[in-house]
């Protein structure tokens, strides 16, 4: 079982709609969670970090964490073509001191 | 000003050669990392240093040797390059383990 799992996609969403990206993790002691965006041929770029259960909003992005269900999600409101990229979910815990990445979800926003 | 910079950006070389990739960060971070991203885009940790001390050493062939001369630099030396080493190698840094990481632009290594 992969430690961090994401649907590889591609996920296609019409411009202006809400894009919903999901991630599950297997290590129950994971405490820190991150969403990165990676454009083709570029480096990963941090979008959101979340550490507590519930929602965290930043502009058009909302991260949601449910530790009981071991589930993290990222919502992108008013999706724009510039949001088309691969989104990487990552988890870490204070025990092993490393980030474990999922394989990423490729998102395409259709104009 | 580039926060995490890697050189070279591209590296094309033949099997069996030895090569190095350099990384420098000007963010004042204590922790630096090397990742390998393969053709399937999976990003996997290789090494991590915290204040010049090795804290993560994943299952990586010993042909790969990291070196941190100071906490702003983390270099990666690779001996006897093999075809399977072809990938993009990313350097990253953070204020500490488990904190958000900032990535360099990557080094695309191609083995002929």
Task: Return residue spans of chain B where pLDDT drops below 50 for at least 5 consecutive residues.
Answer: none
Number of helical regions of chain A: 0
Tell me the strand percentage band of chain B: over 45%
Mean pLDDT of chain A: 92
Assess the beta-strand content of chain A as a share of residues. Answer: over 45%
**Largest interface: chains, residues each:** A-B, 22 and 21 residues
Task: From the alpha carbons, calculate the radius of gyration of chain B and give it in angstroms.
Answer: 13 Å
Low confidence ranges of chain A: none
Shape of chain B: globular
What percent of the residues of chain B sit in helical stretches (DSSP H or I)? under 10%
N-to-C CA distance of chain A = 36 Å
**Oligomeric grouping of the chains:** heterodimer
Structural class of chain B comes to mainly beta
Helix content of chain A: under 10%
Shape estimate of chain A: globular
Number of helices of chain B: 0
Rg for CA atoms of chain A: 13 Å
The separation of the N and C termini of chain B measures 34 Å
Written description of the protein model:
The complex is a heterodimer of chains A (111) and B (112). Chain A has 111 residues and is mainly β. Chain A has no helices and eleven strands. In chain A, the strands form two sheets. In chain A, strands 2, 4, 5, 9, 10 and 11 form a six-stranded mixed β-sheet that branches. In chain A, a hairpin with a 6-residue loop joins strand 4 (32-38) and strand 5. By secondary structure, chain B is an all-beta fold. Chain B has no helices and eleven strands. In chain B, the strands form two sheets. In chain B, strands 2, 4, 5, 6, 9, 10 and 11 form a seven-stranded mixed β-sheet that branches. Chain B has a four-stranded antiparallel β-sheet with strand order 1-3-8-7, with no helix packed on it. In chain B, a hairpin with a 2-residue loop joins strand 7 and strand 8. In chain B, 32% of the residues are buried.
């Amino acid at each position: 079982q992969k430690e961090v799992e994401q649907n590889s996609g591609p996920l296609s969403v019409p411009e202006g709609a809400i894009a919903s990206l999901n991630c599950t993790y297997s290590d129950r002691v994971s405490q820190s969670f991150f969403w990165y965006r990676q454009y083709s041929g570029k480096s990963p770029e941090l979008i959101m970090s979340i550490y507590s259960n519930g929602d965290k909003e930043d502009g058009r992005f909302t991260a949601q964490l449910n530790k009981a269900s071991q589930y993290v999600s990222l919502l992108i409101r008013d999706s724009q073509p510039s949001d088309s990229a691969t989104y990487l979910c990552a988890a870490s815990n204070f025990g092993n001191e490393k980030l474990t990445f999922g394989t990423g979800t490729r998102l395409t926003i259709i104009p | 000003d580039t926060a995490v910079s890697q050189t070279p950006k591209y590296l094309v070389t033949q099997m069996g050669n030895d090569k190095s990739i350099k990384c420098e960060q000007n963010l004042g971070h204590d922790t630096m990392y090397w990742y390998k991203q393969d053709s399937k885009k999976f990003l996997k940790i290789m090494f991590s240093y915290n204040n010049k001390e090795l804290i993560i050493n994943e299952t990586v062939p010993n042909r790969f040797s990291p070196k941190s001369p100071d906490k702003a630099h983390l270099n990666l030396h690779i001996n006897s390059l093999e075809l399977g080493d072809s990938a993009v190698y990313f350097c990253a840094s953070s204020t500490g383990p488990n904190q958000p990481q900032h990535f360099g632009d990557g080094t695309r290594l191609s083995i002929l």
